[in-house]
Amino acid sequence: MEPPARPQSADGTRRRARDLGIVIGRGAPGPFNAITDVPGVRVGHTTVRRPPGVHSGVTAVVPDAVGPRTPLPAGVFTGNGYGKLIGTTQLTELGTLETPVLLTSTLSAFRVADALVGWMLERPGCDEVQSLNPVVGECNDGFLSDIRARPVHEDHVRAALDGASGGPVAEGCVGAGTGTVALGFKAGIGTASRTLDLAGWRFTAGILVQANFGGTLRVLGRTVTPSHRHTAGRDTDGGAPVAETGSCMIVVATDAPLDARQLTRVARRAVFALARTGAAYSHGSGDYAVAFGTRPGGDAPVADADLGPLFEAVLDGVEEAVLNSLLAATTVTGPGGRTVPVLPADALLAALTAPPPPLSPPAPPTV
Predict the structure, then answer these.
(1) Partner of 76 at 20 to 30 A CA spacing, among 51, 93, 118, 357?
(2) For 84-99, what is each residue's pLDDT tens digit?
């Protein structure tokens, strides 16, 4: 087990989208441009790496004081259900979140859920709890990691939960994103946030993604493929899983007063946002979003007619979080020498500033 992941320094070789001048949407981010900009939300990672065979881990999104006695309003949306999102049925039925949201590798999800239950039962006020609904999402990191080894264990889960903190969030090849691949490039964990006005009040929406899905990357309307790596003079050895495999887990947090139905609408927009990035939503992809509010209930929810700015913030935030997951990642070589390259920042900028390809002449009419 590696030490808790720390955010990369601003002068590191990997930079976020805004460091490159790539701005998604009109809204302003919070101070860290991360899900932790939502008050009371912390993030922890445990990275499990034993090269070349294992590149995996667990990521915990931890709302303060969440528990079976103090549930938070929440919603969930499934874009394509080829996945193992543990806890979905009760989350849908009751619209409440009782535990932190954990992300990991597919075959480790069940061990992670068990470890989360054990950790929760030890929390203050849970000494007589007899029913608990753990929420654990997953992505298949089997292209770059020995997924059958199920390398994520209870101590890894507890380290991520106990080490969760506010402030900047480590991205890329950390925690649950250590072995993930998206849109032909090495990906991982990405995050972003937006501040917004709803009905005259200021709120924050924060997003965290575990990106591992197929398709063709689109940035600011431009298509960017692994072939663009030639722009920077790099080779293209390695590859990526075929588009029919992969998934994306999205976690949205907000301090806006919303009920479970409204948070389900927010979760739906989060999955919709993947289309902006070029997601294929293929047969083998599990595309899910869990959205929760940090207010335990009692406040009157925002009127539906006023939710437009929040929907826009989530769409923009997911798009930026996916791009951050790609830009923060580093090239990884897994079992059998399988190597997935990064999205080079210089090649990305070159692709975005290149003249658009000429339009093909229209086909002659047929008679």
Answers:
(1) 118
(2) 999 999 999 999 999 9
CA 207 to chain centre: 7
User: 170-195: per-residue pLDDT in tens?
Assistant: 999 999 999 999 999 999 999 999 99
Strands 181-182 and 96-97: unpaired
pLDDT number for residue 296: 82
* CB contact at 8 A, 272 and 315: yes
pLDDT tens-place string over residues 139-154: 999 999 999 999 999 9
Look up residue 96 and give its two tokens: 């409440």
Collapsed DSSP state (helix, strand, coil) of residue 309: helix
Q: With beta carbons less than 8 A apart as the criterion, state whether 189 and 171 touch.
A: yes
Active site residues: 247, 285, 287
**Cβ contact 116:157 at 8 Å:** yes
pTM value is: 0.91
CA-wise closest residue to 209 among 1, 59, 109, 309: 59
- Give the pair of three-digit tokens for residue 311: 């929907």
* The predicted structure's pLDDT at residue 85: 97
CA angle 192, 331, 62 (to 5 degrees): 35
Interatomic CA distance for residues 319 and 299, integer angstroms: 30
What is the per-residue pLDDT for 242?
Answer: 54
Structure token pair of residue 305 = 């007619």
d(CA 167, CA 148): 34
